[in-house]
Amino acid sequence: MKRSHEPIFWSLFGAGGVLSALIAPVLIFITGIIAPIGIWMPPEALDYPRVLGFAQHWFGKLLILAVISLFLFHAVHRIYHGLHDLGVHAGTGAMIAAYGSALAGTLITAYLLLAVGF
Amino acid sequence: MAQAKTYVRPMAGWWRRNPYFVRYMIREGSSVFLAIYTVILLVGLYRLTQGQAAWAGWLAAMTRPISLLFHWVALITVGYHAYTWWKVAPKTAPDLRFGGRPLPEMIITVGGLAATLGASVLIYVIVRWL
Asked: Which end of chain A, C or N, has fewer beta carbons within 10 A?
């Protein structure tokens, strides 16, 4: 029997599912709603030096990479399997596009985290 | 060869026929909003590497009404994903046993929701005051 890739993708989907269930709502709320409108969050919370310092710290880099990579792998897994629900019978090409874009997002994030300095 | 004229139940719009499937599609659909949000964060990281002016531009874009609208919808759908994630966790989590008995389903779901609440408060406090 041909070995399935599914366990790898399901693990990444599951890890992204747990991480996003834990912190995605609060991240969306802070970065997308309260910080931009300045309610319950001072405008200087996302100041350049502060966010830069976070992205330059090893722990900040780890968190950013985990968030972006696992969120992407979680999302593309659901989108890829959701195509079937919408009557699109996606083949290998769609699979490569889905997981490939999550992998590309991960590599770009890793590169940017190196480019941003230490 | 003649095609047999059997009735094939149409599948178009299948999920709109039952509220259970509508909720299923909202849960699965949350991943589209999560993916877009993640790309927005990725763009933010890219702008951060370009310097202070580029970062200020990203922050300014986040204040646009279309951005706020998107993030409200993303918050609701991804929040629903978080709720459903812990709701099914008793079925998907490894078999946890204490004293030979499986952990009650309610404990796993409530524990997960409490973890989300705790992590959210912690992140809010760190971003705001530390």
From this structure: N
